[in-house]
Write a structure and sequence with these properties.
Length: 92
């Protein structure tokens, strides 16, 4: 069961990272963009690290305060939640 959760975390982070890169590419080439709701979806679903890394690697959405503040804050929240869940499952 632990492996499934780990794979889901990795997948969510990879998707969030990739979405930032894809949307940056689309922005540069005047193509139809990915909605900001979708860019927020995967970071909220425990992909905040991937979304934040993608934001800085691709220099995308860094001028929007809500991305700049929300994504790193989500990392902190997700680390705490993950730690609490891991602690509760190991005590069983």
């Amino acid at each position: 069961m632990d492996n499934v959760v780990l794979y889901l975390l990795i997948a969510s982070n990879l998707i969030a990272f990739a979405l930032m890169g894809i949307d940056k590419h689309k922005a540069k080439h005047s193509l139809r963009r990915i909605p900001e709701k979708v860019l927020f979806l995967f970071p909220v679903l425990f992909g905040a690290m991937g979304g934040t890394l993608g934001m800085y690697v691709f220099r995308h959405k860094t001028r929007h305060w809500y991305f700049e503040v929300f994504f790193p804050a989500l990392i902190v929240v997700q680390v705490v939640i993950t730690g609490l869940l891991q602690k509760s499952f190991t005590s069983l």
